[in-house]
Design goal:
alpha+beta; 25% strand; flat
Length: 182
């Protein structure tokens, strides 16, 4: 039986067309994988200065929360996660006092990330002290547990990140010459 080159060419052409269409459809679907509505859309931070008295209340967990009224708007003042500060929130010493606060807020939001109080920075610039998860923060972090800490210590000891505590390479001393019995 003789093979027909026309059928072979038509089959290869059909295969190529289908392969291209499948690849194009997969690429179109991959473009939508990361799109979760408005999740990635962030509103820009706006610098704001407020003058007034800081009011302190307790939240449902018993931790202090702070607000300041400016005109008809009441701003919720934040200096990081409440679990990190606990009862030692740096705004506590200003509660009930008239102060000038500078900070950042998203457009239309009433949550204010406080940067300075009366011209004094609340914390040093750069990476915040609560960053790094439970491994860096320790038992204050909500994700910390003694079980996790024990597993982590068993795996890495007191050396984290891995490789940080490597000792200098100590090559073995030259071995003494072995007599050959000549």
């Amino acid at each position: 039986m003789r093979k027909h080159p026309a059928w072979l060419a038509a089959g290869l052409l059909l295969f190529a067309v289908l392969a291209c269409n499948i690849g194009k459809n997969n690429n179109a679907n991959n473009g939508n994988k990361g799109n979760n509505g408005n999740k990635g859309v962030e509103t820009p931070e706006v610098a704001i200065t407020l003058h007034g008295t800081i009011a302190m209340t307790k939240d449902s967990d018993g931790l202090p929360s702070f607000t300041m009224a400016s005109g008809s708007t009441s701003y919720s003042l934040e200096v990081g996660p409440p679990w990190f500060w606990g009862a030692n929130n740096p705004l506590a010493k200003f509660a009930g006092k008239s102060v000038t606060i500078t900070g950042e807020t998203s457009a239309g939001s009433t949550n204010l990330d406080v940067l300075t109080v009366n011209g004094t920075a609340i914390r040093a610039p750069g990476r915040p002290p609560w960053a790094g998860g439970w491994k860096a923060v320790g038992s204050k972090h909500p994700g910390w547990s003694q079980e996790k800490a024990d597993k982590f210590k068993a795996k890495f000891g007191d050396c984290f990140p891995p490789g940080l505590c490597k000792k200098p390479d100590t090559a073995p001393a030259a071995s003494p010459a072995i007599p050959r019995g000549d």
